[in-house]
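Weekly modeling sync, notes
Attendees: S.R. (lead), two postdocs, one rotation student

Agenda item 3: backlog of single-chain predictions. S.R. asked that every request posted to the team notebook include the full sequence so nobody has to chase files. The rotation student volunteered to paste the first one in as an example of the format we agreed on. Action items at the bottom.

Example entry:
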Amino acid sequence: MNRRATLHAGNIHPAAAKGSLFDLSGGRRPHHEQGRSYISLGVAPSDEMEEYHAKHQVEYENTYRMEPRNRFVAERVEPILKEILEKHLEKAVYEPIQCSQLAKTVVAEIKQQVKELNFERYKIVCLVDIGEKRSQDFHMGSRCLWDSQRDTFATASYENTSIFATAIVFAVYFE
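Predicted structure, as returned to the notebook:
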């Protein structure tokens, strides 16, 4: 944040200012201000300003709300997961580096679309695993310490001839 200071140069005659680098007489000024000059200075923020802002931050009162207004509904999220996985992985062939980047892209899109559903006060954690199909079996598990009344998850899987993928979205209620 820059502070600005304006100095009023009272009795500077415009004719006396012709030798300066700045034309103080130019520009449009109201009739009653002719003959007056203003100099505007910009000042960079100092350490004192940063300390002031650090000490005077806005603090919010607790709402003591224990229940979310808009609960996370897994049935609304799972179709989004399936759609995004199909869109990105339909023609994909397993390549380790490419699939790593693809997983990051899929995670970002899933998080964006889930956040657009406006589940208030939920922390959204999204995991996408992409692997190569080689006639093997794959089991995935997760363990979390959470409130079973408010926290939940949604999951979807996808596979084609060369890859398999699993997407999980954890929704953890933040009081």
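Discussion: group reviewed the output briefly. The first strand starts at residue 3 and ends at 9.
Action items: rotation student to repeat for the remaining queue; S.R. to check formatting next week.
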